[in-house]
Amino acid sequence: MTELEKYYNKFDEDHRLTTRHGIVEFTTSMKYIHDFIPDGQKIKILDIGAGTGRYSVPLSEEGHSVTAVELVPRNLKVLEGKHANVNCWPGDARDLHFLPNETFDITLIFGPLYHLHTEDEMLSAISEARRVTKKGGIIFAAYVMNEYSIIQYCFKKNKIKECLENKSVTSDFHTVPNPNELYTYLRLEDIDRLNQKAGLERIKIIAADGPADYMRRELNAMDEETFKLFLDYQLATCERPELLGASSHLVDILRN
User: How far apart are CA 208 and CA 251, in angstroms?
Assistant: First the structure.
């Protein structure tokens, strides 16, 4: 069993995305997915790294043809147990040989790029997403962000001196990818470089959860009306360039 499997066997992804900070991420991402679905049309959607189906299931319930690919057997079993109208495949984002070229209108990569540690691995996953997405189709690629890691782990947990000493963080406070760690954290310039090498055109990039991950306790304490106002604030500001890098997750929206 890989470290990734061990992690997701213990981690409740369904629960995370139904907490208030998770609802912020889900609501924002779904709003932008719907922006790229033509009114009244049912389309083909691929969810790579689908987890337990937080996006696959509701999109299939809207009548879209949804295919889900998931690496972790436990997650796939949970997804299949929901008995949704989702075509489920075990698979790795870097090798989607079982899926034909130019099949999907929208492709979601909402997890795999968090866990790949080299640029070549990320480009392999992006290349496979491009291959199976129709020409002119839309790819949503999610990343976890460097500054979130530095603030939440290195400083908030007082690990910064240790990280600098063991060279897991550079002198200019950029995390260093490590295959022994679960996550890889990027900056905007890293994402821009990936897009350039992959030959993808950015439509827009959004802070999927904005400040929500820094405010978990405060969000949980809000009454429903105030939380609704926070969601309105998030949707009004998630494209603002000065707020992008500090979000815990970014979603890059790209045209194939």
Answer: 6
Strands 44-48 and 249-255 come out as unpaired
pLDDT at residue number 2: 74
Two structure tokens written together for 125:
């996953």
Query: What is this structure's pTM?
Result: 0.94
Where do the H-state alpha helices sit in 66-204? 73-81, 119-132, 146-149, 160-165, 188-198
Distances from the Cα of 215 to the Cαs of 74, 154, 210, 211, 223, in angstroms? 30, 17, 10, 7, 14
Distance between CA atoms of residues 147 and 153, nearest Å:
10
H or E stretch at 172: none
The helix/strand/coil state of 106 is strand
CB atoms within 10 A of CB 169: 23
- Here the tokens at position 188 are 């905007």
User: Is pLDDT at 253 greater than 80 in this prediction?
Assistant: yes
- What is the C-alpha to C-alpha distance for residues 182 and 114, in angstroms, rounded to an integer? 8
Q: Phi and psi of 71, rounded to 5°?
A: -80, -35
- At residue 130, the 3 state secondary structure works out as helix
Are 213 and 152 a contacting pair, CB within 8 Å?
yes
Contact 87, 67 (CB under 8 A): yes
Query: What is the average per-residue pLDDT within 177-199?
Result: 95
3-class secondary structure, 22? helix
Q: Are the beta carbons of 88 and 75 closer than 8 angstroms?
A: no
